[in-house]
Amino acid sequence: MLTRVLADLQIGTERAVRRRILLIVSLLVGIPFAVLPHLDLVVVGVIQSLQALVPVASIVVLACALVMLVLRAWGAAAVLAAAAVAGVLPTLTPTGAFAQADGVACGAEAAAFRVVSFNAQFGEADPGRLAAQIRDEDPDAVILVEATEPLIRALLVDEGLAEALPERSGEVSTGGASGSVILSAHPLRDEDRAPGSAFDQPTAVAAVPGFGDVRLVAVHPHPPIPGARLWRDGLGMLDRWLEAAPDETLIVAGDFNASYAHPAFRELAGGFVNASAAAGPIPWPTWPESDRPIPAFTAIDHVLVRGGAPAEWRSFAVEGSDHRGVAAGLRLCGA
After folding, report:
1. Tens digits of residue pLDDT in 204-262
2. pTM of this prediction?
3. To the nearest 10°, the Cα dihedral for 165, 207, 249, 335?
4. Cα 234 from Cα 220, distance rounded (Å)
């Protein structure tokens, strides 16, 4: 009898020790994970890369919490579940009342406006397939980053989009990922480029019939790797420039090289509504798109609007690019 009691005590002690160890490990994992989306540090670009993984990693952390429940490690399960929720919440796309920027709420008389945004990856995207996608979307404006003049010419001339999109911003810069262009179905007035990037960030004002002026901004900040400081400073400069822009209706689209998992992007997007809110709070990934088994895992391509509201959103793939394109239907109503 005494032997059995001692054995039970030993088993109980071992279980308590195991639960204590699991709790400590959960704290060591959970606390950094919950804090990660709030770190606005640029010491090393790896922080930004880890932040981009938070939405996917939160599923793994939650699965670990379920394992802890099976093991009856209640404290560890609670810590990991709380960490998963705390980590993923900042990364979600604001929707509903949280998506209203500056009190904008469009009424029934709002003007419909469609935008396509796409990173053409050094101009290597298949022009035929891209043109077909653009034609299907019938957009009022197309934002292309990492565009080249040969690609633009192929779309407008060879693929016959010049009639649907007769207006464009100025000639793009050459070399690598530098070029960006705005194509428009409406009269377009080219203006100074937005600051904050060595890549093209053209701006233009479209005169939309029956509505008025709509400022369009194509954005492509520097990526955080390499150059986390350059990336952060660029987003900050763009944020201040957009905040100072007097336009009642402003559409900002492109490859932001940032998601809601990054504090710098949340700060920039705070005065806008993200068109992806029309698809719900999940940040549907747009990069990297490839034929490899690894799926896209982060949402860095966005269409933001001020003075409007999202009506629909979807993404699409075009061969030759490692980004998914974004097609957004907006309702413009002014500020």
Report:
1. 999 999 999 999 999 999 999 888 999 999 999 999 999 999 888 999 999 999 999 99
2. 0.91
3. -140
4. 10
Rounded to whole angstroms, the Cα distance separating 182 from 145 reads 9
Six token digits for residue 276: 């992806």
Tell which residue, 34, 113, 144, has the closest CA to residue 80.
34
The DSSP letter of residue 123 is T
Q: How many CA atoms lie within 13 A of 17 on its CB side?
A: 6
Please answer whether residues 232 and 264 qualify as being in contact, where contact means their C-beta atoms are separated by less than 8 angstroms: yes
Buried-state track 151-174, b at ≥16 Cβ within 10 A, e below 16? bbebbbeebebeebbebbbeebbe
Q: Can you say whether residue 293 is alpha, beta or left, with left for phi > 0 and alpha for psi between -120 and 50 degrees?
A: alpha
Residues facing residue 144 across a β-bridge: 118, 181
CA 192, CA 214: separation in Å to the nearest integer? Answer: 15
Cβ 277 vs Cβ 304: under 8 Å: no
From the list 189, 224, 187, the residue with the least C-alpha distance to 209 is: 187
Q: State how far the alpha carbon of 230 is from the alpha carbons of 1, 174, 234, 254, 285, in Å.
A: 71, 21, 6, 18, 24
Of 206, 204, 208, 229, residue with least CA distance to 219: 204
Q: What tens digit of pLDDT does each residue of 88-114 get? A: 999 999 986 556 554 455 666 689 999
Alpha helices in the chain (DSSP H): 2-35, 46-52, 54-70, 74-88, 127-137, 149-153, 228-244, 263-269
**Distance between CA atoms of residues 33 and 250, nearest Å:** 35
d(CA 124, CA 127): 8
223 backbone dihedrals φ, ψ, rounded to 5°: -70, 155
